[in-house]
Amino acid sequence: MVWSAMTMRGASAAALLVLVALVAGARAEDPYHFFEWKVTYGTKNILGTPQKVILINGQFPGPTINCTSNNNILVNVFNMLDQPLLFHWHGIQQRKNSWQDGLPGTMCPIQPNTNWTYHWQPKDQIGSFYYFPSIGMQRAAGGYGLITVHSRDLIPVPFDPPADDFPVLVGDWYTKDHTVLAKNLDNGKGIGRPAGLIINGKNEKEASNPPMYNVEAGKTYRFRVCNVGIKAALNVRVQKHILKLVEMEGSHTVQNTYDSLDVHIGQCLSFLVTADQTPGDYLLVVSTRFIKEVSTITAVIRYKGSNTPPPPQIPESPSGWAWSINQWRSFRWNLTASAARPNPQGSYHYGQINITRTIKLSTSHGKVDGKERYALNGVSHVDPDTPLKLAEYFNATNGVFQYNLIGDVPPAAGTPIKVAPNVVSAEFRTFIEVVFENTEKSIDTFHINGYAFFAAGMGPGTWSPQCRKTYNLLDTVSRHTIQVYPRSWTAVMLTFDNAGMWNIRSNLWERHYLGEQLYISVVSPARSLRDEYNMPETSLRCGKVVSLPMPPSYAPA
User: Which domains does the chain have, with CATH numbers?
Assistant: First the structure.
């Protein structure tokens, strides 16, 4: 819904709440949570330079969306910026509902001085996720926040309730304005190195006084860590305390213990820390990985009654790629635990399903018209004026995009990069192997919207079918984001059973901005509401579909 003058206030808002509540009660729907966000710019001095930051209701980070599996989430976004705006719900699968995914390929943007209401559910999901503004380089200016999805009351959780639940939204931070970063990329320049790291929107001084986290001796606490940055992989650790990994991007894990954990861009995980040391102050420590000049930030964890400063010795970050790869191999899916449903996670035997198709996506970069571009299989994606999903739904793809400009194998080395919307079609409900090959000298991470996948294997060099002999076909973690090490490959497996238009992208936002992404179109041949929702009547329209009649409804489920 759009209110150009932003007049929704008081009685009208209350009436809407009452109406939706009555409808929900009559249909015995899942509970509703309502949010009203006013998105503005504000000036903050985070790393020594006053800069323009995207705020939500005056906050950075934005409000936490704290909900339970299957809840209805309604977020009324008032765009008070001077640019179009979309929010993406990173890791939320939007089952049957790519209409709410919040990317330029699926939705028309919310224009300045207008508002629009998202409505989505974390359907059959639990865990730790986050949201962020997805247009251009806005993500570098803040506007992000945590999403916590809890299990329903009758679904057992494989650990005791923690004494508290702590957010750790940590990432690299640039002091240049996001419009300047975008302009630099448009002019063929890079964005350079970040100015430093921040935790929950704060620098190291602000994260220490007052202490960011308060604990009591003998109690156990959950830390939800998300790498919300745009460039740097990170390592997280706590002075003199052990980290027990319990959840990763919506999956319960085998509860192994670690001195520290690598968290790559776009990844989220949860670990438990028991306050079992001598009462005092201790540091949560985060450092960059795989960058020559290491940046580190700390935040104080204070035991109740402490007047003892943190120990002077800060635990060092691990070094090298091998350590990180071996840690990834230690992560295991908890086969006996229930997630969002009562059946055990391990009841889904992904390793016994026949692969129907292998898509090998190889990264590349080069000059196009004198400017740097990144590509997947030789095509560097650009967003057309008409969102891909709308063009497809209205049967108006001519002049907007062509399907399958790339093949399932990379082109020959040296093939010129083509700049165009990059859309691949996938047959509904087929089990597909996607192999990411990173040809660069630096690490990359990839995310697939709309799905969780099984990261079955990774290794150096280029992938071949013989690499399947190294796969974990039993208990690799089901997740949505995975790292690909330099000049290496990572293979993931998933069933494309969620109809819609879904983004596959690099989470290194410089590469994403310059084209290292594509969309995968998954169409149900039944055109049934069982498989996908109709386009909401309130959806924004733009480009070629502004005046087109609404297509016929999908068939009833």
Answer: 32-150 (2.60.40.420), 164-325 (2.60.40.420), 350-522 (2.60.40.420)
Output the six-digit token pair for 90: 């990173």
Which pLDDT does position 29 carry in this prediction?
84
Query: What distance in Å separates the CA atoms of residue 465 and residue 435, rounded to the nearest whole number?
Result: 11
For 289, 291, 446, the CA distances from 233, given in Å and listed in that order, are: 5, 9, 13
Burial of 171 (0-12, 13-18, 19+ CB in 10 A): buried
Residue 165: pLDDT over 50: yes
If pLDDT is split at 50, 70 and 90, which confidence band does 20 have?
A: very low
Q: What is the pLDDT of residues 275-292, one digit of tens each?
A: 999 999 999 999 999 998
Burial of 348 (0-12, 13-18, 19+ CB in 10 A): middle
DSSP code, position 123: T
Measured distance between the N- and C-terminal CA atoms of the chain, rounded to whole angstroms: 26
Sheet holding 431-438, edge to edge: 418-419, 379-380, 371-376, 357-368, 431-438, 488-495, 453-460, 478-479
Q: Is residue 131 a contact partner of residue 87, using CB atoms and an 8 Å limit?
A: yes
Which among 493, 484, 479, 475 is positioned nearest to 256, based on CA atoms? 475
The per-residue pLDDT for range 420-448, each reduced to its tens digit, is 999 999 999 999 999 999 999 999 999 99
Buried b (16+ CB within 10 A) or exposed e, 289-298: bbbeeebbbb
Strands 65-68 and 145-150: parallel
CA 409 to chain centre: 26
**Secondary structure class of 82 (helix, strand, coil):** coil
For the cut 60, the answer to whether the pLDDT of residue 17 exceeds it is no
Residues in contact with 213: Cβ distance below 8 Å, sequence separation at least 6, in sequence order: 166, 221, 284, 299, 300, 301, 302
Q: What are the backbone dihedrals phi and psi of residue 98, each rounded to the nearest 5 degrees, phi first?
A: -65, -5
Cα separation, 364 vs 506, in Å, equals 12
Mean pLDDT of 324-339: 96
- HSE-up of 252 (CA within 13 Å, CB side)? 20
Buried b or exposed e, range 71-95, using 16+ CB within 10 angstroms: bbbbbbbbbbbebbbbbbbbbbbbb
